[in-house]
Amino acid sequence: MLRIVRGKKIEGGGLDLREMASGYSSVIVDLGTGDGRFVYKMAREQPGNLFIGVDSAAENMMEYSAKAIKKAARGGAANAVYVVASAEDLPAEMSGIADKIFVILPWGSLLEGIIKGSKEILGGIARAARPGADLELFFTYSHLHEEGEIGRRELPGLSLEYIESTMTPLYRDLGIALGQKEIITNEELRKYETHWARKLGFGKNRDVFHVKGIIAGQ
User: Fold this and answer.
1) Alpha-carbon dihedral of residues 29, 172, 152, 195, nearest 10 degrees?
2) Backbone dihedral region of 14: left (phi > 0), alpha (psi from -120 to 50 degrees) or beta?
3) Under CATH, to which class is 3-215 assigned?
4) Which of the four, 54, 90, 92, 217, has the lowest number of CB atoms within 10 Å?
């Protein structure tokens, strides 16, 4: 069942997401949206597109959901929706809805699934996408800062070579063609306006990997 965060409340049902999406030029999904800042900011900047933030932690999205449901003159964004779900268990209402999917600085199981190319995570991404949808990934970790998480999840060392030789074939097997692969600067990361993008963007320099792809869909 579709569960939506509206302000400080979680509502089940009552929203026809597909009907809502039909009124917009494009639908952009942000998986692992965290506090939802990115979705809110983008929705304000692009009123002709629908932005859907997805996270399993409903309470984290409440602040920006409360901003979004205000009237436009008071900073609202009617084209921002916050869905309570995990990437591997998206509601049926989101199947084939996205023209573009972002995953920006994932953590926990989402990070592990993205890096290791898990069928559950990538399958969820593919199900949410329209055929030919764009995928944009940003991820980073290092033994200097995230030793504990690397050890717990047995994460491999990150490099462009690993993305090309290991991730790319795994994604291809699930209908996702990875294309552009690059390391971006802290300054470039800050443009994406998520809580962690801003925090890391103003921190010490580190390798942040930026990968783009095309999703065939399911």
Assistant:
1) -20
2) left
3) alpha beta
4) 92
